[in-house]
Amino acid sequence: AQEEGEAGVMEIAQRIYQGFPGCALVLLAHRLDMRLVRAAMEAGIRQVVAMDDAGSLKDAVIRAAVFEKGRNGETGREPRVIAVYGGKGGAGKTTVAVNLAVALAQTGRRTALVDLCLNYGDAALLLNITARDTIAELVQDKSIFSIDDVKSFSIQHSSGVSVLCSPASPEHAEYITPRHVETLIGTIRPYYDFVVIDLPGNLSECTLTALENSDDILMVSRMDISNLHAAKQALGIFRTLQQEEKLVLLLNAEHKGVLKRRDFEQVLEQSVLQTIPEDAKTARLSQERGVPFVIGMPRTPIAQGVRRLADRWLSERLREGA
Hints:
Elements: H1 2-19, E1 26-29, H2 34-42, E2 47-50, H3 57-72, E3 80-85, H4 93-105, E4 111-115, H5 123-127, H6 135-141, H7 147-152, E5 155-156, E6 162-164, H8 178-188, E7 194-198, H9 205-212, E8 216-222, H10 225-240, E9 247-254, H11 261-268, E10 272-277, H12 280-289, H13 293-296, H14 301-319
Parallel strand pairs: 1-2, 3-7, 3-8, 4-6, 4-7, 8-9, 9-10
Antiparallel strand pairs: 5-6
């Protein structure tokens, strides 16, 4: 019963730590041992003081506040969590997410890429990395995890992007719960300038949790009737969930055809943020080589299109005074 009560305290502490950046936490405990201190640190508690040593509480609070101030000063900017979503497979969502994350990292911003396509994620494939540890191992190893835990299960790509990969096998997807997704986003948010989340097309509970905890939803759609239909359905759900204000629409693989940009805007009643030109050859070569085209083929129109997309968030940060 005592351990259950302790777990409840740690859970509350972690929620405060994640939800209120700048709030310094100090734990008063009846007893002190390394296991308790370690659990407290993982939950975001910065100082642990014994009940019979209340005289040192003031100093502990000051030390915790100083530490927390340093944590908030790590980036010096408001972090931005960007969820990349596509209602229909083949829209190029993962390609956009990977190249967007790399483009942001190349500007010197601390950037994380989280592959939440839990059944069949391809982010590692597009980056030519092999993940021994993934989000599945993270949530199995830790019920409460810190930023150090997340980093230890991530891979640092040569571009500077920190990548948390999807499970190696589809059956491991069941280990990840909406609670894990919420905790993960809350944990990593203060430590990065940008967090890009690659989401699957299905609106599972984990996907919905990621959308609700993101700052922006980048919906990627190709310019054909089936993608327009899927985007219309997804947009209706976003409106029901009151997530519409976060939405920005990207038309991928723009080409001459029956449907135009204005058709999407009229049907969806949503302005298009940007279009990216069609370049199947560059996209295919990039995937086969495992080299994002913003690095391997930076002068191609498709790479320049993604860089303009990255500039949208960079310039927004400047307008916010970052």
